[in-house]
Amino acid sequence: MKTEKFKKQCNTNLSIAICRPGTSAALCALVLSLPAPDVWSQTDDRVDEEILVTGTRLSQRRAIEAKRLADGIVDAVSADDIGKLPDKNAAEAVDRLPGVSISIDQGEGRFVSIRGISPALNNLTINGVTTGSPEADDGGRLAPLDVIGGDFLKAIEVVKAQTPDMDAQGVGGTINVVTAGPFDQEEVLFGTFTGQFGYEDLSKDSPYAAKFTLGGLDSSRTWGWLLGASYSYRDFESRGVFQDDWREETLDGVSARLPENAKNNFYTLERIRTGVNAQVEWRPTDADRYYARAFFSRFEEEEVRQRYEHFFNRDITALTPTGGTSGTNNRREQDARYEEKDKEFFNIAIGGENAIGETWLLDYVAQYNQNRQTEPNRRWEFRGDGYGPDTWRLNSRGFALIQSGPTDVLDPARLRFRRVLLQDNETEEDALILGLNARRQLPAFGDAGQLKFGVKYTATDRTNDAANTRYNLGDNDWFLSDFGHFGGVLVNDIDGVDFPNLAVDIGAATAFLNANRNNTAFFELDDEDTFENEFENDYDITEDISAVYLMGEWAWGEHEVIAGLRLEHTEVDSKGLQRDADNLTAIPISQSGNYTNLLPAVIYRVNLEDDLVLRAAWTNTLGRPDFNQIAPISSLSREGSEGALFIGNPDLEARESANFDLSLEYYFAQDALLSLAVFYKDIDNFIVERSEQRRDFTFNGELFDEFTVTTLENATAAELEGVELSYQQQFDFLPSPWSGFGVALSFAWIDSEIEIEGRDDKLPLIQQPDWTRSYTLFYQAHGFEASLSLDESDAFLADILDSREEDLQHGEYGRLDFKASYAVDDRYSVFFEWQNINDEPNTEFQGLRERQNTGYEVYGQTFYLGLTVNF
Q1: Each residue of 263-318: pLDDT tens digit?
Q2: If pLDDT is split at 50, 70 and 90, which confidence band does 704 have?
Q3: Which residues belong to any copy of the TonB-dependent receptor-like beta-barrel domain (predicted)?
Q4: Which residue in 796, 746, 739 sits closest to 773, CA to CA?
Q5: What CA–CA distances, in Å, run from 596 to 546, 630, 685?
Q6: CB under 8 Å to 187, separation ≥6 — which residues?
Q7: In sequence order, what DSSP letters do the residues of 278-346 get, joined into one string?
Q8: CA separation, residue 300 to residues 205, 386, 625, 717, 780 (Å)
Q9: Average pLDDT in the 504-527 region?
Q10: What is the per-residue pLDDT across 337-352, written as a single tens digit (0 to 9) for each?
């Protein structure tokens, strides 16, 4: 970059500025602090052929400008001029970026994968500061972005090449959520209200949402305040078919592959999202800035799952490649699950920036995070035997379509109570983060060089408390038809196929259990399993990370270099409980571990032409072990005379990734970008399972014929490479009305390789698709705008089992969405959204055969009408 346009970026407020020759550090601090150059806050009232730059086009302009001015390699999505991201939550908003894919939960995006790397190896920050995660599943490093709604966010940045002043965590990258601030608009008082009401195609329910933002500045423009709040309610259904453990069967010379069972699920769900963003900021001088900000986001869910399960292929009497007939010893099961989830992000921060003299600029922050999740889960199970003969055939999707014998498979009086499981899980994570950065202009380089250094301390305390109380059948048999448990027959329509299902009345079942749990005629408490589940997954972990870094920035002519080192030292203290072999008691245990990482980085940028930018980067990042992996916990599972013991490993160290990036960006017109990026990652210390098999082994006084002990270790390495291509353009060179059209396209190809113990073949990384694609067509003219988007991701490896025939693959996924809005005047606008137009299913299959269906869920379409008022 030219010296007169040498860029500086402030991490605390994420503004982007241009510091020109002769500009003092104090004035540079002012530019860094004020919102005018901030690409996330820009408005543009320039008129090109009567097209006012608002909405989608303004979002594209901001995102392009952010990429162009970024220190590292960054892609971003910006809110539109009314402060709204285009999707239900933050995860879905970034799905359109190159190299980004998301995992789906009940039709909504949840976790974000960057360049094929597991979401657990990313770093989530809010306004540049690590926020942690409330998630209990999969170890606690996963950050569920569906908790964060798309309202009152200014932007979401995906940083793929991190500078030394950023946290080292992030093998995939860093996802930075930027919230709106009071100086985003130069108004004494400003505000926005948005309300929307919708329709769920599958359940016929009506979701709704509302949000407001109110803020302002004092008359001197030195004090600013902002308060935003949002609420959304969604009541909906989803339906699915699940078929486990496909295997090959042979009868009379005919071979066929078929699943062990066939399940169909009927879900009813209620999801509520609540968010608050509050900020106060004081700018007493051009060179000083102080702020206090708080962010709160809550996700509440109630889910009822009714599951009917066929074990339909015992004692096979006839077999064809796509069907067959079984005997009369088949089984049916009905279970109902009632689950509540409550997840919260909360952080509060105070900080500031100060220019000292003409050459120094300080910024500092102190932040407290509190994340929590509670997840009570109740599951009732009923079972019946002696069904059949069953005749089945597999349709083109791999669904097992079953024609049952003379026994009434929907008779609740044949389904005997088996057990009820009462699971409770509570996770809480508290963190204190202290950071101080100092930058100094280097006189030898004039205004084209600076030195930056800083320290950061992050203290995290995370606890997990899980329990599973189990009641088995008591002295007397009783059935689904008894005591008001039966809630009726369900017809589960999945893509035009009607699957039989039954309903368990959750309210009646809960009341009966509460009244009779101590009555041994109906229930018998499983003391041993309940005791083991009471403590085997409980832990308390403190993780202290101390970091120091030094980096320099130099610019000459059209060139810019950032080089530096980051040192991070991690201390881990973990506590758990271990079973006393002789008594139903638990013994506290504790272990400690530590590791240190030195992480160099060099990032180079050159303007080959005024509109052509080349970047190259060598960076080093970390992927810390999941919390449950470093906890001193053990869990025992049994199946007949076989046992399996899993043991955590507090001595695990972080994965280390050396990252190489090369990109070329062509800004060939206003609001236009064509970019190509190639990348390579060499990941060491990859964490893998290590197992030992033992025979005739006694554990805790119990004899097992076969016993497997599994733990984790840093053992293997992985490699990943890929290419990203992005194209965005507004067609304003065309005559009206065609000048209102524009497109945003992105593609990524990714390939990876990892060696797994016990497997001769080389596998890709879990959750790494070969291709991701995104297509957006938008139009804007005369107050009207519309966008049509399709986001696609290829199939990827979901779970590694014993062989490729058994491995689970997540199917390809591509969702089509439409949004249109019309600005009635400067204050009022109306909008319409149509989500999941193509009614895309979420699928999983076994081996490399898509017809070996292990999961197929449908969610239906969602429609919204809304109104926005600016004041």
Answers
A1: 999 999 999 999 999 999 999 998 999 999 999 999 999 999 999 999 998 889 99
A2: confident
A3: 410-837
A4: 746
A5: 10, 16, 13
A6: 216, 217
A7: EEEEEEEETTEEEEEEEEEEEEEEEEEEEEEEEE--SS--EEETTEEE--S-EEEEEEEEEEEEEEEEE
A8: 18, 41, 28, 39, 36
A9: 95
A10: 999 999 999 999 999 9
12 has pLDDT over 70: no
pTM beyond cutoff 0.85: yes
Helix (H) or strand (E) holding 239: strand 223-242
DSSP conformation class of 643: E
Identify whether the C-beta of residue 386 lies closer than 8 Å to the C-beta of residue 148: no
Pairwise CA distance, residues 735 & 350, whole Å? 51
Three-state DSSP at 448 gives helix
Q: Which two tokens stand for residue 192?
A: 């926005």
Whether 542 contacts 573, CB under 8 Å: yes
pLDDT band at 705 (very low <50, low <70, confident <90, very high): confident
Percentage, residues of the chain above pLDDT 90: 63
Among positive and negative, which fits the CA dihedral 670, 675, 681, 686?
positive
Question: How many angstroms separate the CA atoms of 495 and 858, rounded?
Answer: 8
Taking CB atoms within 8 Å and a gap of at least 24, the contacts of 477-481 are 477/416, 477/417, 478/416, 478/417, 478/522, 479/382, 479/412, 479/413, 479/414, 479/415, 479/416, 479/417, 480/334, 480/382, 480/412, 480/413, 480/415, 480/417, 480/504, 481/411, 481/412, 481/413, 481/415
Q: Are strands 174-179 and 123-126 parallel, antiparallel or unpaired?
A: parallel
Three-state secondary structure call for residue 535? helix
- How many angstroms from the chain centroid is the CA of residue 309? 30
Closest CA to 664 of 35, 25, 73: 73
Q: Is 213 helix (H, G, I), strand (E, B) or coil?
A: strand
- The reported pLDDT for the residue numbered 366 is 98
Q: What pLDDT, on a 0 to 100 scale, did the predictor assign at position 761?
A: 83
- Average pLDDT (56-78) is 85
Query: How far, in Å, CA of 585 to CA of 469, rounded?
Result: 16
Burial class (CB in 10 A: 0-12, 13-18, 19+), 164: buried
Burial of 662 from C-beta contacts in 10 A (0-12 / 13-18 / 19+): middle
pLDDT of residue 9: 34
Q: Are strands 702-730 and 741-754 parallel, antiparallel or unpaired?
A: antiparallel
Give residue 390's identity as a one-letter amino acid code: D
Q: What Å distances lie between residue 386 and 172, 400, 419, 633, CA to CA? A: 52, 19, 19, 41
Pairing of strands 702-730, 153-161: unpaired
The predicted model gives 436-446 an average pLDDT of 82
The pair of structure tokens assigned to 673 is 């970008």
Q: Where are the beta strands (DSSP E) in 446-585?
A: 449-473, 486-494, 497-504, 523-525, 539-556, 559-579
pLDDT confidence band for 446 (50 / 70 / 90): low
Residue 616's Cβ-count burial label (10 Å; 0-12, 13-18, 19+) is middle
- CB of 347 within 8 A of CB of 367? yes
Mean pLDDT of the region 668-689: 92
Residue 698 burial (CB count, 10 A): 11
In a 13 Å sphere around the CA of 371, the CA atoms on its Cβ side amount to 25
Q: For the domain 3-870, what is the CATH code?
A: 2.40.170.20
Q: Structure tokens of 827?
A: 């204050």
